[in-house]
Structure formats: structure tokens, C-alpha cells
Amino acid sequence: MAKLTTFVLGGINSGKSAFAESLITNQTTTPYYVATSVVLDQETQEKVSAHKNMRGPNWQTIEEPVDLGSALEPLPAESFVLVDCLTMWLNNLMYQELDVDGYTDHLLETLAQSELNITLVSNEVGLGGISENALTRKFARLQGTLNQKIAKKSDRVAFVVAGLPMWLKGGI
Amino acid sequence: MAKLTTFVLGGINSGKSAFAESLITNQTTTPYYVATSVVLDQETQEKVSAHKNMRGPNWQTIEEPVDLGSALEPLPAESFVLVDCLTMWLNNLMYQELDVDGYTDHLLETLAQSELNITLVSNEVGLGGISENALTRKFARLQGTLNQKIAKKSDRVAFVVAGLPMWLKGGI
Amino acid sequence: MAKLTTFVLGGINSGKSAFAESLITNQTTTPYYVATSVVLDQETQEKVSAHKNMRGPNWQTIEEPVDLGSALEPLPAESFVLVDCLTMWLNNLMYQELDVDGYTDHLLETLAQSELNITLVSNEVGLGGISENALTRKFARLQGTLNQKIAKKSDRVAFVVAGLPMWLKGGI
Which of A109, B89, B113, C137 is deepest in the core (most CB within 10 A)? Predict the structure, then answer.
């Protein structure tokens, strides 16, 4: 079976994670979940718990806020893996002042070389105008560039609005 | 004639209301308009007046900022009704600290049980990144959840950009 | 050859400019680029330089921050022209307190009457919710209205997410 890289984009509470999960649970009973969130406050804790309950008990969770490439490499070939989400990941890299381009290149190499079926979730954040805050503007630029790079290397790309996908590339 | 529930999503001044109106005026000469705006300042007054002028005199207007279910129930079966918009409605519920889930459930029951052709308009608000303001973040989460629920119960869903629809479900 | 007006919409770093350029460089070796940016700070300077490097040396650049109609009129018939972007242009008009409607009408007349193949790039800015800042709200309203007017007069309209187009009208 050829591996398939899938990219799911959407807004806040757009249903993008649930849609991404549904793509995977249709294909396997032993999915992996790579969680990028770092729980620092109650709001994040509630969000993480809600996502976990939604996923159900079949999923094996790996927490990796920074080095996604290294988290993905040891997983068994042909597994189905959900990476949720690249926006928290980018946030972590920026917050810790790490090398965004370097970690991105490592992730892209992993996508190219691994035998996993990887689905990545990310936020589209650049459709609300330009912020007055310089850091927010930088985040929007980096997120836009990251999303373009992942989309280019994915076999299929969906943009989710109100729980419903528009396929920008490939599809089901 | 079977009833049809339509959901029209879009951004600020995206042409979503005009598009939703065009779907209705193609079908009836006696449409109903359920307005959710509460006029508290001049900016809202100007927006409401501009929308009213655009609609023209055929429309019968019902003002209901909170209890949409109860506003819709008395309308004659098979009528065409435009609810504009769910973003102002959610704003009103939050501002008055009312039960968002309860009013949403009532609206969803009305959509399921009524014999009306209801078109609902709402804003997509979650594609501009995460706000620094906790209330804005809460609004974005609730709006996203509400939009998913309405989309799930609608027969057709359009996402409008620059006056042009992308059909996410059903269509014309 | 009949002229073609194309409108490309997208978010921050969505790949909209690169996509618009690819539509033109497929068609001609002597494209024109109408740049609307005014370089007032280093951030803009870096963005302008990055765009210029991306375009390559074939493009003939015309800088016009305000009077797009007059900048387009002298260009040779049947040329391919990229106007990048209408969001900076609207920003310039507002910042200088110029007549947005008047300049927009002039641009629309030029689109209707010229024999150029014009591709216009603009930002979608209204999908991130309503700002607390009155000027930002005004900008979002004017940008939404402008985008609708340009889309209506264009032969084809694309909405770009993560470098990938969704055609709202016409297409390739």
C-alpha cells in the first residue's frame, strides 16, 4: 500500500480535527496521535481533554511539542498518524526561540522519506487582516509559509469550514 | 414541496446577505426577514438601514435578538425566511449572559420540525488567528461550534467570498 | 485575442502573489508589475525585496500607490499586467484620506475599457471576526466591498489557501 500524506486546514473550532480523525478511523483501528500542545493553563487543559474525549480510547498518544520529525520516525511503517496541530507546534518553536526553518525542513524530510500515512492539521490564520502587533504579524507570515510548504508536499489538502471539507488537492 | 434549510457563511462585507437574499427572492414574492441586530449605536443603525434598503419593500421584517425558535414557529408553513445573522444573535446571547446551548438546541429543533424554508446567515470568524482577548477567544470557539451544528442540520451550505459562493454541501 | 481580467484573493502569506504570477508567466515573457506598496519601514522593504526576487528579472515594474487607473491606461494593448495588491492600495487611499469610491470607479472603468490582461491581487481580511478598533472595522468593510466590486467585473476569480487555488468564477 502506498503511503498518503494528508493536510487539513481550517479555522478555530471549524471541525478540522474531527474531520482529520474521521479520515484515519475509516482506515485503521490502531491510530497514533501526535499531540503538540503544551498544557500551561486551564484553557488549554480543557481543550486538550475535550479533544481526547472526542477521539476515544483506540488512539495511542505521543506528546511532542517541538521535534516532530524525531517523534514520527520510530512509528511502525504503514501506520496512520495524526499530527494535531502545526499551529501549536509553530507557537512552541517561536516561544522557545528555536529554529523554525530547521525543524520544518526536518519535518518535510520525514514526510518525504517515511512509510507512514501522516495527516497533519493546521490553522489558517491569515484571513482576518493585518495585526497591529508585530509578533502576531510575524506568526501569520511564518504560519502562511509553513502551510504552503506542507501543502506542496501533501498528496491531498482539505480546507474545512463549519465541519465541511473543500478539497484543494486530491480528495476522497 | 419539501422544505429546504440553507446555511450561508462568509466574512465581513463578503456579500453573504445579498447572496442569501437572492436565493429567496428567486423563490417567493412574500419573504420573511428575521433581524437579530439590536440597534445600540449609529454604526449598527447605518448597517441595518443599508441592509433594509438593499432588500426592498417586499420583505416582512421580524425583529428578534434572542429567541429565534419562538420567532420562527408562528410563520405560515412553506414560507421562505431569512435569519440574518447568527453572529449578532450569538453576540446578544453572550452579552446578556443567556444560555447559548439552550437557545441553540431550541433553534435546531425548530429547523428539524418546522415546515419553513429557512436560510440562516452567519459569519466565519476563526480564520484570523487566536486573539489575545479571552472574550474574543470564547466568542470564536462558540461561533465555530454553532456554525458546525447549523451546517450539520442544513440541506445546503455555502461559503461566500467576494460575493461568490462555494457550495460545501448541496447547492443550486 | 480577447482580454481576460483575473482576480486572486487570499490571506497573509497564502501564496496568492506567486499563484497570480504563475498565471501570467505562462502567457508572456514581457509582463508588467504594478506595485502599490509604499516603503516606509524595514518590514515593508523586506517584503517588497522578497517579492521582487521571487518574480525574477523579466518583469517591468511600475510603482503606483494611488492612481491605478492612470497607471494602467498607457500600457500597450494585450499586455499582461499584475496589480499587487489592492489591500495596500486601499490602505494608501485611507491613510491619505483620498476618495476611495472615486478611485475605485476609475479602476473599474479601466478594467472595462482597456485591452489589457489584468490580474489583480487582494487580501480577504473579513474572516477573523469583528475588531474592537473602529478604523480596522472600517477597513474590513471597505475591503469587503472593494473585493465584491472587482470580483463582479472579473472573468475569473480564485481564492488561494496554502498556495492552492479554489476557483470561484471561471478558471484554468
Answer: B89
